[in-house]
Design brief:
This protein is α/β, with parallel strands linked by helices. The protein has helices at residues 35-49, 61-66, 76-96, 110-114, 116-131, 153-164, 201-206, 219-231, 244-251, 266-276, 287-296, 336-342, 350-354, and strands at residues 8-9, 15-20, 53-58, 103-108, 135-140, 169-174, 195-196, 235-240, 254-255, 257-260, 281-285, 305-310, 317-322, 325-332, 363-370. GO terms for molecular function: ATP binding; glutamate 5-kinase activity; RNA binding.
Length: 374
């Protein structure tokens, strides 16, 4: 018989991505079930009362849709896509039923996250939802996805979303208590692994496949997700979402499961990437912008921009200079041609000058690193 996990303190966090698997939202016959979701929603509500933010990545749309259609009429890829379309409304309704705050559904494909413009649009939308006090519920857009309907997609999607929203931690609620030295369902000598300094090939080799009929991923995809999150400096927590007491302890600051650490902090990982990513151009700023960036940690606004050099696109990493001396680097929200038109102007003029607006920031403070930082 496999041993049980012991409690350990949660890492400090302000924003988390909570991934909830299909096995926690469905009964054995495929019906949508709110039993386990209720305790997870209570954790989300408790966290929000403490000033924290939680983004939910939720599976279960295909399983929910299956109860609304005859199984023999919903086979193959197109059948799964139709089931996802049927099930999405039920899935969102389930989550909304737990919260007084509004739930905002966001459907993504990997193409949305690979394409630079769509990635930034998704990032901006999620930031705005959180700023409005809403609870984003994200799912793979199975209705239109083709090759994305594959093993463990939402585990990996959750890791990408965690990096997308600058989460401090990725929490994966599953139907297993955490990582073991072997599959605890088949090996009675499997021992719990409560803390992992870094995911290695040995960990991946010990992981199994999909755990349930309703789910599309197993422990291997959760470890793959942890690797993706770690690359962004985000820790991953694995725990049993069926165990209401375990979930309640999360709200009290205690994990009963596995903590998969990141080699470097989230901030350090992002700063490292920004420092070393190839620059596509340069923005030169005035004295006021220099002071705002260095002394106040502000975002770069168009009013502080003197001119842009190069032919960069929205989403590129660019250098920020003052008096021809590089002083920062960041991800730019507007193309070089746009910045030349709005340089020195007030943020309220952006839409009238361009005919559209991606927000008031030329470079958001979360996407900027000062080169004088240690």
């Amino acid at each position: 018989m496999a041993s049980h996990f012991t409690e350990q303190p949660l890492p400090s966090w302000r924003r988390a991505v909570l991934k909830v698997g299909s096995s926690l939202l469905t009964t054995p016959d495929g019906s949508l079930d709110d039993h386990h979701a209720g305790s997870l929603a209570a954790f989300v509500s408790a966290s929000r009362r403490e000033g924290r933010e939680v983004v939910i990545v939720s599976s279960g749309a295909v399983a929910a849709g299956r109860r609304l259609a005859l199984p023999e009429k919903s086979t193959g890829l197109s059948g799964r896509q139709a089931l996802a379309a049927l099930g999405q409304t039920r899935l969102v309704a389930l989550w909304q039923g737990f919260f007084d705050a509004p739930v905002g559904q966001v459907l993504l494909t990997h193409d949305d996250l690979r394409n630079r413009r769509r990635y930034l649009n998704a990032r901006s939308t999620l930031r705005e939802l959180l700023a409005l006090g809403a609870i984003p519920v994200i799912n793979e857009n199975d209705t239109v996805a083709v090759d994305e309907l594959k093993l463990g997609d939402n585990d990996n999607l959750a890791a990408i979303v965690a990096a997308l929203v600058d989460a401090d931690v990725l929490m994966i609620a599953s139907d297993i208590a955490g990582l073991y030295t072997a599959n605890p369902r088949t090996d009675p000598d499997a021992q719990p692994v409560p803390d992992v300094a870094e995911v290695t090939p040995d960990h991946l080799a010990s992981a199994g496949g999909a755990g349930t009929a309703a789910g599309t991923g197993g422990m291997s995809t959760k470890l793959e997700a942890a690797l993706k999150a770690a690359a962004a400096g985000i820790e991953t927590l694995l725990f049993d979402g069926r165990d209401a007491a375990c979930v309640a302890r999360l709200a009290e600051g205690h994990l009963t499961g596995t903590r998969l650490r990141a080699p470097r902090s989230r901030l350090a990982a992002r700063k490292y990437w920004l420092r070393h990513a190839p620059g596509a151009g340069r923005i030169v700023v005035d004295d006021g912008a220099l002071q705002a960036l260095r002394a106040r940690g502000a975002s770069l606004l168009p009013g502080g921009v003197l001119h842009a050099e190069g032919d960069f696109a929205r989403g590129d990493v660019i250098d920020i200079a003052h008096a021809d001396k590089p002083m920062a680097r960041g991800v730019v929200q507007y193309a070089a041609s746009d910045i030349r038109r709005i340089a020195g102007r007030h943020t309220r003029d952006i839409e009238s000058l361009l005919g559209y607006s991606y927000g008031e920031n030329v470079v958001h403070r979360d996407d900027l690193v000062l080169l004088g930082d240690p």
